[in-house]
Amino acid sequence: MQRATFCYPDSFFEPKDFGVSESMRHLIAKAEADEVDLLDDYIEAHIHGVVRVQDDVECVVLDPCYRDTEVEEQAAQLGVPVKWHGGFRLTVNRLRHYPDYRGPQIVALGVQIAHNGVIQPALLGKSNHQGGHDAQAIKKAWHYLARFGYSSQVK
Description:
It holds the Pfam family DUF3626. The protein is an alpha+beta fold. The chain has eight helices and seven strands.
């Protein structure tokens, strides 16, 4: 915690409120007072210095869409346990029920990214790495997936 600083809201919004672990009450109070969506209601952490996976990471939690992929192989080589959560899957039909959540343009992006009518994390990652889409738009599409497509707890 000595190497961390914190801000609220997300750094994308160019926040004016910052803190360190010993003085975060004002950030916590601000986050608790805001009436925003759960996916926007967090205090962002910035780690300064080297992050050593074996020393600083308890485990890696992956989405099941990465089973038997290069992502799983790479995670297994990190020297920490690999766990799986229940998975994120969002059908295009369900996505279309929430045009006001992040906007109809993000729904359209989700429809474009979907494969066989379903959005999964790997598809969003692939779209982001291939370019052609605004990174913030991909992030908002991820918000749809996280908000409306979560399956269950970590296994």
